[in-house]
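HOLO CASE FILE
Compound: adenosine-5'-triphosphate
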Amino acid sequence: MKTYASKGWRPTAVLLLLLVIWESSSRFLAIQEWLFPAPTTIIREGINGWSQYAPHLLSTIQLTLIGFAIGTLIGLAVAVILHLIPSLREAVYPLLILSQNIPIIVLAPLLVLWFGFGVLPKLIIIILVCFFPITVAAMDGFRQTNREYIHYMKMAGATRSQLFRKLEWPHAMPSIFSGLKISATYSVMGAVISEWLGASEGIGVYMTLASSSFRTDRVFVAIFLIMILSLSFFFIITQVEKRMIRYQTEGERDANG
Amino acid sequence: MPMAKLEIQDVSKTFDGTSVLDHLTFQLKDKEFVSILGPSGSGKSTLFHVIGGLLSPDSGDIVMDGSSITGQRGKISYMPQSPSLLPWRTVLENVLLGSEIQGKTDREQALRMIEKSGLSGYEHTYPEQLSGGMKQRVSFIRSLLSPQPVICLDEPFSALDEFTRHDMQKWLLSIWEEHQRSILFITHNIEEALFLSDRIIVLSDRPAHVQKEFTVPFSRPRDPSLVLTEPFLTCKKQIYKEIRKLS
Ligand SMILES: Nc1ncnc2c1ncn2[C@@H]1O[C@H](COP(=O)(O)OP(=O)(O)OP(=O)(O)O)[C@@H](O)[C@H]1O
Ligand SMILES: [Mg+2]
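Model generated. C-alpha cells follow.
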C-alpha cells in the first residue's frame, strides 16, 4: 500500500488534470453533448443508467467467463499435448504461429454464417482469441525448463510423467499466468466484438444501440465499463497468481509480469 | 576381498569424434568413500552421467552388486555440481524429492536430518532465501535421503568460499560417519580429497583414464587439524607431483 501511495500519485494527478481539462473545455467551448459529452454527464449516466445496462453487463461477464474458461482449458490441453509429443509439435507449431497472422475478428462473419446468431459463434471467437497466448506461454514455460533440473530428475530415475508433473508443469506456472493475463484482456474484447455481430444482450449491444441513437454519453459509459471489466479481470488473475506462486520475490514477479 | 558395490568396467565415451573417457576401470567398495581428482574438462561429470544412465557408454559396463546397470537411470543417488533445488518447493519438499521419485518418502526422517544439519527453522523456507552453503546442505540431504546405496557427488563444494567449504567438509564427514553409504566424490581440491576419502583416483587429462590410485592412510574419525600434520602434507605432495606429471 505504501508503494502505491508513493508511486501512484503521479499518474493519478495526471488523470485528474486530464479530467479537469476535458470538463472545463466541454463547458467553456460549449461542445455539443452528442458529440463529446462532459465527464460529469457521463458519470451521471453511469449512475442513473445502472438498471438499463446492468443486464447487458451481466450477460457480457457471463459470456467472457465461459469463453475464457473454455479457451484456457483448450489452450493448456493443446500446449501439454504438443509438448509431450515432439513430432506433433514440430508438425503443428509452425502452423499455429502462422494462423495468428489471420486476425480472428475477420473470421467472425464466417462464424455467424455457419453457426447463426446464438451463443456458439460468440464463444468460438472468444476461445480463438484467448487460446493462443496461453498455448504459446505454456509451451515456452515447459521448454525453458532449466537443463540442470532436468538432469537431476532424470538421474534420480524420474519417469516422463514425473518429469512433467514435478518439474515442467510447476516451472511453467509463472509463464502460464503471463499468458492468462493477456488472454483475460483479449477475452473481454472478443466478447464485445462478438456481440456487435448480432446479439440480444451484452455491452456490445448496449453500445451499438447507444451510438445509433446518438447517446454518446452511453457509448462512453460502455467504454468505461469495458475498461473496468478488463482491469478487474486482470487484477483477479494477478491475485490468484500471488496466491499460487509464493516462492517468487517481488522483483522476479515484476520481471515476468 | 568383498564384492565391489559399484564397478566401472572398461568404460569409453566419445563425443563427436573426441574421446572423453578412455577405457576407464575402477571400483567402489561397500561403505567406501572414494574421491575422483582430475583436471577441468577431463570428463568427470561425463563419467557421472554415464554411471547415472543419462548417457550410454560406447563400450564397457557399469555394474552394481554384481549386475549390470548400464544405461539405467535411478540406480544411484546424485548431487549435481550446482544445487539444483526446485524453487517452488520448500526445503522439506526439496529434500524429499529424490525419495518421492522412487516412490516412498519419510517425512519424520527428513525433518530429523534437516535439524541435525543446522537448518531447523528453515523447513518451510524456499531455496531462494538460503545462502549458498545452506543450499548445498539441502542438496546433500536430498541425495542422502534418496534410497539408493551409492551417492555420486559432483564437486559439491567448489562454488563455496574457503570458510564455508571447511564447515561443509566437517559436516559431510560427521553425517557420513553416521549413515555409512558408498560415496563417489568429484573434486579439484587435493586437500579436500585427502581429508574426506578412503581412496583417491587421479584421472588423466582428456581422454580420461585412471592415472594413479592412492589409498589414504588416515584413520577415522578425522579431526580438521589433520590437514596440518606432517603425514598429511607428505601425501599431499605425492599427489601433487602426480598431477604435475599430467601437464
Ligand atoms: N553432451 C556433450 N556433447 C559434446 N561434448 C560434451 C558433452 N558433455 C561434455 N562434453 C565435452 O566433454 C569434455 C568433458 O566434460 P565434463 O563436463 O565431463 O568435464 P569435467 O571433468 O566435469 O570438467 P569440470 O571439472 O570443469 O566440471 C569437455 O571437453 C566437454 O566439452
Ligand atoms: Mg564437471
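CASE NOTES: Chain B has a mean pLDDT of 91. The first strand of chain B starts at residue 6 and ends at 15.
CLOSED: yes
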